[in-house]
Amino acid sequence: MPRIIDVEKVGSFKIIEKIGEGGMAIIYKAVQPSLNRTVVVKKLKDPNNEIIERFKKEALVSASLSQENVLSIYDFIYHGRTYYLIMEYVDGYDLHDILDYMSPLSPIISALLIREIAKGLEYTHNKNVVHRDIKPSNILISKEGEIKLIDFGVAKDEAPSKLTITGMIIGTPSYMSPEQANGEKINNQSDIYSLGVLFYEIITGFKPYSGDTNTEIFAKISKGKFVSPMKYRSDLPLKLVKIIKKCLHRDRDKRYKNATELIRDINRYLPWQVQTDNKSIITEFITHYEKIEQTATIHSNLYKSVKPVASWISIIVLIVLFFFSLINVNRFFVNERFSHLSIKSNSREFNVVLDDKLAGSSENGEIQISNILPGNHELEIIGSGKYGVYSSNIYLNPAEKKYQKISLPEKNNTVNLTISTNPIESEVYLNNRFIGKTPIDKLILSAGKHNIEIRKNGYQKLNILKKLASEQSYKLHYSLSPKSN
């Protein structure tokens, strides 16, 4: 239900509803009729001169930034003796609210989120802007899978500034770097440290440093001693633990020098399928979050309406239902969702290509490829030296650990092709000409592209366009899917 608003129009922007309120500002959802787009209007509450300067600074700094992981600022308005910021509207949620329901997040989702935030910082740092307040409430995640860094009100750029915000701490204590907590000069690495704190929190459910007072928190940050993330989650990938620890190093010389280095290391962990499909994965993650939030809201409303006589039974039932739904929703995002493929070959050196992208290389005749998205994949094993190419289509179930022992064909002076199928005795058509039933052995062809069609009654037809290199041998294997009734 829309909340009551105290203003109906700001300049040409028509206010729709109030969507939030903080210590400094009230946030409205609005419409810009001239461009037919939804925007956010941020109204300054306090007329204090230093707060106004901070507000103006946010407008000036943000207006100079244009990148997909940074929230856009459209306008800065003085209207009716009040200051307003007009900003990009993101149809989604902030990370703080998401963590309330879903913390800790899976390693894959955590790494994806941090990578996208790091991309935003990579851009702003190249513009000589240090954010200084990286925290969950300053991260927005849209229903379309976009991740936005917001609130540059305390950002620091190279321009001289007298802005001090008297009596206020610049930044959020638990996420501050040692140099920021000690009042020393900060730089891009200070944001990297804060991002490391965020990484630690979303993947473990705990902050590395906490305390009853800011003084206690600052003292712990200055010492630089924190509990390893693996104390909370022993199954965490070591690659991510090393990344987090490097972000959180007290010594800046041993911390990541820039966001680019951090992004590089995260990409080395993330499966290439996840890297290229990141928005759809985040979209699915947000859809599951919405289900959890709705379930919790329904349970909360039911709890309020429960009669005293049945209250204990109802409470127990609601708790069981809530955690059952939470477990089922979160199961999708833990590592077990992804499949794993182990390959052993008669060629010591070979490359593995999945869906036309290099997935790994072997130098000892064996390789394991982890974190593969479930479903159908085109697999190609390319040997070296005297060995040729093996191609196949494979289906991986969620959490499946598939092992394949593959015998690569030896190269020939001509293009040599072997075709096998499951089931056997499937009809094979080459360039629209029937050539026989599988298995087909040592078919000699000219180099170039060839259209291969495989048919069998009761099964779905396969069409494959295969490019064959000269002086090479190919071993093709395909599994046909039964036709659905």
Q: Which helices and strands, and how do they pair?
A:
Elements lengths: L8 E2 L2 E9 L3 E8 L4 E8 L4 H15 L9 E7 L2 E7 L3 E3 H8 L4 H20 L12 E4 L4 E3 L28 H4 L6 H17 L9 H10 L14 H10 L11 H11 L2 H5 L1 H28 L5 H21 L7 E7 L4 E5 L2 E6 L3 E7 L2 E9 L5 E8 L4 E6 L8 E8 L4 E4 L2 E5 L2 E6 L2 E8 L6 E7 L4 E7 L6
Parallel strand pairs: 10-16, 15-23, 17-23
Antiparallel strand pairs: 1-2, 2-3, 3-4, 4-6, 5-6, 7-8, 8-9, 10-13, 11-12, 11-14, 14-15, 17-20, 18-19, 18-21, 21-22
Helix pairs in contact: 3-5, 3-8, 5-7, 7-8, 10-11
In short:
It is built from eleven helices and 23 strands.
Explain this structure to me?
The chain has helices at 49-63, 95-102, 107-126, 178-181, 188-204, 214-223, 238-247, 259-269, 272-276, 278-305, 311-331; strands at residues 9-10, 13-21, 25-32, 37-44, 73-79, 82-88, 92-94, 139-142, 147-149, 339-345, 350-354, 357-362, 366-372, 375-383, 389-396, 401-406, 415-422, 427-430, 433-437, 440-445, 448-455, 462-468, 473-479. Mean pLDDT is 82; it is low at 158-168 and 331-336. A 7-stranded mixed β-sheet has the order 12-11-14-15-23-17-20, with no helix packed on it. The chain folds into 4 domains: 9-88, Phosphorylase Kinase, domain 1 (2-Layer Sandwich), CATH 3.30.200; 92-159 and 172-276, Transferase(Phosphotransferase) domain 1 (Transferase(Phosphotransferase), domain 1), CATH 1.10.510; 278-329, no CATH class; 336-479, Immunoglobulin-like. It contains 11 helices and 23 strands. Strand 8 (139-142) and strand 9 (147-149) form a beta hairpin. It starts with 8 loop residues before the first strand and ends in a 6-residue tail after the last strand. The chain has 485 residues and is of the alpha+beta class.
